[in-house]
Amino acid sequence: MISGEFGGRRLFAVPGNKTRPTTDKVKESLFNILGPYFDGGAVLDLFAGTGGLGIEAVSRGMDRAVLVDRQGAAIKVITRNVAVTKVPDRFTIVHAAAAAYLQRAVGTIQFDLVFLDPPYAQQEIVKTITTLADDDLLRPGARIVAETDTKVAYPAVPRFQLQRQVTYGITELAIFRYEGDEDN
Predict the structure, then answer these.
(1) CATH number of the domain encompassing residue 101
(2) Which of 2, 45, 74, 161, CA to CA, is 20 to 30 A from 183?
């Protein structure tokens, strides 16, 4: 943890090299860009790894987080990390592939903040954020943070505004704002 309600607590890492945790430097910069604290809402950490980004968002004021990962080792670590917070009822841990979770979530929740940190070899950011919008999983004004390698170029995405792109070494953060459906 860097800041907020759970400040100073150490999170566990996923053993091996199948996950790529966001470094503390990138995480701190990200939350400085987003605004250091939140006033409620729901966050989705879709490729959660350790769950660190979603846990940090709740620590900084989000009401609840859904932490999704498809790897069993990651789910075990996420469970341990959520236990460190001492408020497990504010977290939902889902062992599923991202696309499978999004299909199940339709009609059950809307998110105010979404973290997308897929494996670099499987980056489908535009497809994923379009699915989130098409399936009504985002509140108007929701922000989506995509963590990718620096080789990704984003086309214009209907209903989204690319607000900022920042590069940290081999990592790039892109922050999108959901403008809502044109019908609204």
Answers:
(1) 3.40.50.150
(2) 45
Domain membership flag for residue 49: yes
- Quickly state the pLDDT bin for 162 (edges 50, 70, 90): very high
- Indicate the average pLDDT of the chain: 87
Collect all residues with Cβ–Cβ distance below 8 Å to 135 and sequence separation of at least 6.
102, 105, 106
Three-point CA angle 31, 37, 41, nearest 5°: 105
pTM here is 0.89
Residue 10 lies in a domain: no
End-to-end CA distance of the chain: 38
Domain assignment present for 184:
no
Tell me the residue range of the domain where 55 lies: 25-143+167-178
- The answer as to whether 156 is a domain residue is no
Structural domain total, the chain:
1
**């890492």: which residue's tokens?**
13
Measure the CA–CA gap between 84 and 136, rounded to whole angstroms: 32
CB burial readout 15-24, b (16+ within 10 A) else e = eeeebbbbee
The count of other CB atoms within 10 Å of the CB of residue 70 is 16
